[in-house]
# Entry
Amino acid sequence: MKRWIEQRISRQVLTVFYVLIALITLTSLGTYFYTQQAIRETTVELERISEQRSRATDLFETWQSMQYEMRGHVLLGEDALLAEVKRAQDRIDDQTSWFEQNAVTSEETTFADDARLLFTIYTTRVMPGLERYVVAKANGEVDEPFLQMATVGQLMPSNASSNQTRFKLNSNSAADMSASIVDMESVFTDYRSDLDFQETGLREQLSEQLAKAQWMWLLILLGALFILFISLQPYIVRLTKQLEALITNSERLAVDPHATLIPIKPLQNEVGQLSKSFTEMSGSLIHQHDELEKEREKTARILHTMRDAIVFVEVDTNQRFANEALFDLYDQPFPFGDRQSLYPIDAFYEPFMDQIDDKDGLNRFTHRAKNCGIFDETFTYSMQGGRRIVRMYAEPIELQDERFGVMFVSRDVTKEIEVDRLKTELVATVSHELRTPLTSILGFTELLEHRHVDEEKRKRYLSMIHSETTRLERLVSNLLDVQKMEAGKAEQDFKVESLFELLSDVLEIHAGSTELHAFHFDCDETLRVSGDPAQLRQVFSNILNNAIKYSPDGGNIAVNVSCEDDVIRIAIEDEGMGVAPADAERLFDKFYRVQNEQSRNIGGTGLGLAICKEIIESHGGTISVRSELGNGTTMMVELPIVA
# Structure
């Protein structure tokens, strides 16, 4: 039976409930019957007292009525009033007999005896005297203006009840007799007071009995509950401990799925089944958590390996998470030590935004994606003062057909845009630089083929064809040199050379090509450099050639060599047209040419300085420019010193 009860909590609760109901019912029935009996007995007694009071009141009123009728008969002498007095005497006699028969207490017996004694005195002495007084008054035997008690006393019979001591009646004094008759009112009053006292006592007794019954019922009920509590306490303690263990294990699992759980010995009830299910669920939860962690880490590592910067924004919380590429994009040190998840970037958001040139435009784009759901457009913006160009697009992230986030993907397209620009400039340069010499070559060739020209013109035409062919060959060579250098396939033959001799040879060649320029050279003859002599000559030749071309009005060209620490600094300065600062920053970009009328008239491919930069950097040096528009240009080349 006990095992059957313990297998279901509902059975246990119902068993306790039924026992409690039975105890409450039994105690309530006992209290009810006890209270009913007490109320019944008290009610009967109260009804008896009420009847005693009612009859005593009727007796007193009959006495008063009899006295009033008797006084009227004495004053008026009417026989009808005397007949009423006789009837009242009969009623008083019956009522007094009832009290004598139904007296229970000593007070009731005394009241009955006093009433009978007074009635006897009144009927045997007072009334006969009054009747004789009326007869004597009517016969003229008594001549008085009004009733005189002394006269009535003389007419009264002899004192037959002289032995009674309760009421003193002196026949010689009419006043004493009249005062003694008033004692009946005191008897009635005392008796009614005694009845009121008895009734009050009964009511108090009834209240005490009811309170006693209530306390008995409450004590019995508390005793039953105490017994039930003592009986159920061990089971409740075991059940509570198991539930507390389940709660503690749940809290531990919520914090750490691999937390150590409290061992539970399951009970033979629903809580025991819950404990078994919880143990199985915790094992399944740990397995699922491990699988989810693997999937999350795999997804995060995949996103971190992407070269595109990713920012995920939650729609409800506006929290931002990003991959590692975002920190690379904004040149920020990576502050995290693993790649197992996307990283919160709210703390880095402002430093990132400070690098963006068009913040308002970016904010409008992200607002349209997050709040308006517009995902069919891209946004291209610059950052770091135009140093980088970034293209961004947005994609919604939905779960169960509900959008809960937006993924913003940013790609650094600086190189792509630069490549597009270079392609455009290459096409423009090649189309211009190739078409011009080819047109000249084709034109002069047709003239020589289809027309007869004299020897002087023929030589001049052939010279023009040779010049344009050389120009074409130089363009193709420059293009090939750039391609080889960028691909890392340029062959270099490093040697230690005298810098003085190398620069002297280049200056001698260019000095003979112009009569408008004066060259100044200052260099320590002991300085030596390590590098490819041909490539170094190409660099300085290109710089000197530009100095001559871009100072068409002539002027001084100075080549000054100085040493500082372990660096040789070669400064080539001209007095030509110069360039603006904005153009000076891009002089070393491929195909870039200054866009002004004088430069366009001079011509060029825009590859010379780009080739110079590649060569100098491959030799471990640097090249830079310092120029002002209209005030000449200084090209600065720095190379390592060779000891």
Observations:
- The radius of gyration is 69 Å.
- The longest strand covers residues 388-399.
- Residues 170-180 have pLDDT under 50 and may be disordered.
- Residues 183-255 form the longest helix (73 residues).
